[in-house]
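Reading a protein record of the kind used here takes only a little practice. Think of the row as the fold of the chain written in a discrete alphabet. A record is reproduced here so that you can trace the correspondence yourselves:
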Amino acid sequence: MFQGASSLNLDAKGRMSVPAKHRDALLVQGEGRVTLTKHPDGCLMLFPRPEWEAFRARVAQLPMDAHWWRRIFLGNATELDLDSAGRILVSPELRSAAGIQREVILLGMGSHLELWDAATYATKEQAAMMQGVPDALKQFTY
């Protein structure tokens, strides 16, 4: 179960050091093998290999009218291995797709992680907060 936010920086080659708490889980769940792909909200999704395989199977079964979403999720997927320093290389294509420069936010989302450009995430989070609580959460107690 991935949760929490981490502020990170990509190095000059586009590598990101995965925080130890997530790195350990990725090593246990998928032996350090991960998949990185696009998310329609403008970030990237990082899956441990077993979670990716389940997600990929669900996407592959989408009906024909969702073929562009198969292309977005599956066609842009990159399989990676954590290197000996616990880093992953975010390809230039995926960095460009998510508007990622140097400063990023890594968010735990339960079964996977999201990788956001830090400024983009701050803007989108603020816009969501300004819209108020959605109906789905109005009966939610916290």
